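Encode chain A's predicted structure.
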Amino acid sequence: MSGGRSAAPGRIRIIGGSLRNSRLNVPELPGLRPTAERVRETLFNWLAPVIDGARCLDLCAGTGALGIEALSRGAAAVQFVERDAWAAQVLRDNLTRLKTTGGQVVALDAGRFLQGVPQQQNLVFLDPPFALELWSALAQQLEQGGWLAAHAWIYVESPRAGVLMLPANWQLHREGHAGDVRFALYRRALPLS
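Encoded structure for chain A:
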């Protein structure tokens, strides 16, 4: 692609599973903030009992590190949604190079994607660009649009000082902090009718 974009100005490492120590190319894009290794390691320790065979949605995928880590650890399928066409192409290239199966990349804005026909997910990674403040809107679309399985898990990464308006039936399971970042894992409870 033009514009002086580099396909691999950086690389990050998959830390567990069948793709352990594989490197992902990271496109040079403003605001792209891959989830830190230490945070990914903590998250996937939390998810270890439920990741095998899970259907996952990596919303605002960026590098796809969260979804690829899930595939590496036994997730059945991951749908990666990334609005930036260049980032989506680098993600496709990484999946091809790593010979992964079960990953599908959709180059589309997350909000528009969630207006489509829902496919229930066991696990959703919700880590939008911090500057866009999309957590509440995307969380409501996930909950109201039929995207979440009955007791789905939702991972949310946000600024430590931020106040998020998440659905009332998303129950906090675990949380941590890394610098200015808060990372939290929620479990969906069935909404009261």
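The domain at 10-188 is CATH 3.40.50.150 (Rossmann fold).
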